[in-house]
Amino acid sequence: MDINYELYKVFYYVASSLSFSEAAKHLFISQSAVSQSIKVLEKKLNTSLFVRSTKRVQLTPEGETLLRHVEPAMNLIKRGESQLLEASSLGGGQLRIGASDTICRYFLVRYLSEFHHAHPGVHIKVTNQTSTRCVDLLENGQVDLIVTNYPNSQLSTGSHVQEIHTFRDSFIASRQFYPQLAERPVSLRELLHYPLLMLDRKSSTSEFLHALFQQHQLDLVPEIELGSNDLLLDLANIGLGIAFVPDFCRPRQESLFSVQLQEELPCRHLVMVHNPQLPLTPAAREFMELLERP
């Protein structure tokens, strides 16, 4: 089937904005031209891609399927254009990174600062998602690389994974509300008698902790699940429970302490990942070399 690329381009911008008028502004064409292009594409594909009403535009299931294929292709084309414009120079261009809030704040900031001072002309774009969702950003071509917790169930064997940091996790409790936990080592089984605070189930940290308890034949039912380690620590500080966080964001407040466990928790890693099937920009390659340095 021979379909003009411009039709897919129009489809992409309508599907991304769910607005014919917004797509027209972005493409610098009339709204009627956008509408006509979509009609031609629907006719060639023999299917409806959008549900149109007076108030809004929605994708049909077929439109959602097409978008899942068109979006990575559009991102790849944009990246190719960007690389050509950079002309193998770090005097400009863009560095696109995916990472969780915690990894950005407690690990990446100093590297981003160093890179920015060395290459001020490069535009840095950081997209914050959980470590598992960052993999989707990478596979869709929305970022050049990701920095994520490992193990990570979403990482495929086709991704290039390189370890850059090793860490352990800790259970953090308030001295005021849980002084008894500071007196002796505590077992994982005993911890189940206390309210546990942890990241939401879609995170790699949550996957790791649930798997750890299952290995000890224990059923973990957290009291609170949130999307921020900093907020978990805030709640632990006021006595709402015991927070599970990586040691690189362990608090310095004297009011909080790390619970000593009878069992030794396995190490986890921070890894940087890129898709070897997609070309790396000079900026991404330079930043990856920076992360590799001891």
From TrEMBL:
* Residues making up the signal peptide according to the UniProt record: none
Q: Which Gene3D superfamilies match?
A: 3.40.190.290, Winged helix-like DNA-binding domain superfamily/Winged helix DNA-binding domain (1.10.10.10)
Which GO-annotated molecular functions does the record name? Answer: DNA-binding transcription factor activity; transcription cis-regulatory region binding
**Keywords in UniProt for this one?**
DNA-binding, Transcription, Transcription regulation
Q: Where is the HTH lysR-type domain?
A: 1-60
Reading the lineage from the top rank, the first entry is Bacteria
Q: Which InterPro entries match?
A: LysR_HTH_N, LysR_subst-bd, WH-like_DNA-bd_sf, WH_DNA-bd_sf
- What SUPFAM superfamilies does the record tag this protein with? Periplasmic binding protein-like II (SSF53850), Winged helix' DNA-binding domain (SSF46785)
Q: Which family does it belong to?
A: Belongs to the LysR transcriptional regulatory family.
Q: What is the protein named? A: LysR family transcriptional regulator
Its source organism is Candidatus Egerieimonas intestinavium
